[in-house]
Amino acid sequence: MAPLKVPAVLVADAAANGITEIPRSPGWISSPNGRGTIDILLSCLVTIFLCSWSVLCLNIPLAGIGQFGFLLNKARWMGFTIFFPEMTTGIAAEQWRSAIQSVEDFSLLKEEWESAEEDGQQPEKWMTTQANLSRINRAPWTMRHAFLADMGGLVLKCPDFPAFPIDGSQVVWLVKNGYLDYPEVSMAEIWDKNKADGFARAVTIAQIIVSILKSIYFIWQSYVFFYVVRLCALKSLVWEGADETSGS
Asked: Which helix (H) or strand (E) holds 86?
C-alpha cells in the first residue's frame, strides 16, 4: 500500500499543534442509530396505503362498472378508511353480526326440517322441505356463504323484472316461506370467485404486526399505531369474506 502523501503545509500545522500522526479517513461509516423525519413519514405512508388497500373486502361491483370504476370505488373507500377508520370498522362489525344472524337462522330452519322428517309429518310442501334438507346437508350455510350473500354474491331473478342481489336475511326469509329453494353453493365455488388467497391475507397481517412493533418502539407515532389496531379489528371482522369477488 502506497504511503499517504500529506502536503508540507499540513505537516507543519500538525507539528505546530503537537500532532505526530495524521489519521486516515475510514472507508466505511455505519448508519446513525435513529431515523430522520422523511424516514418516519415514508414508513407511515407506505404502511397506511398497503394496509388500507389490502384490508378492504368491498361488495361485488355492479355489472358494467369496469376496471377503472372499480379502482375509483376502492380508492374512495381507502380514503374513507384512512380518515374515518372507526366508521369502516363499525360497518364491518354490522356485516359480521348480520352474517352470524343468517347462519343461526339457517341452523334453526334446518332443525325444523329435521323435526318434521323425524315426526313423520306431511306438511303442505313436503317435497320442497325434503329437497331443501338434502341441499343444506350437502352445502351447509356458513359464515362464508353469509358474507357472500351480504356482499351481493347471490342474485334473485324474477319474471319481468331485472335481477337484483339479496342479502343473507332475505335469503332466509325467501327459503323459509317457500319462495326460493335453498341455494346450494359449495365452498369450492366461493373460493373460485375469491381473488385473494391465504398468502395475501398473511402479508396483510404481517404488515400490521410489523407496524405495531415499530409504533411501540417509536411510541410517539400514536396515530399509525391506533390506526393499525383499528385495521386489525376490521380485518378480523371480514376475515371470512371473499375479497373482491367477481360477479360472474
From this structure: helix 85-118
Percentage helix, strand, coil, to 5, in the chain? Answer: 60, 5, 35
> Above 60 in pLDDT, residue 220?
no
Up-side HSE of residue 189: CA atoms within 13 Å toward CB? 11
What pLDDT, in 10s, does the model give residues 5-43? 545 444 445 455 555 555 565 566 665 666 677 877 887
Q: Do 139 and 184 contact (CB within 8 A), yes or no? A: yes
Please name which of 99, 79, 97 lies closest in space to residue 88, comparing C-alpha atoms.
Answer: 79
Nearest to 242 by CA among 137, 143, 107: 143
| pLDDT confidence tier of residue 100, bands split at 50, 70 and 90 | very high
The amino acid occupying position 78 is: M
Q: How far apart are CA 3 and CA 193, in angstroms?
A: 71
Q: What is the pLDDT of residues 48-89, one digit of tens each?
A: 887 777 778 788 877 777 778 888 888 888 888 888 888 888
CA distances from 241 to 30, 40, 57, 232 (A): 47, 33, 7, 15
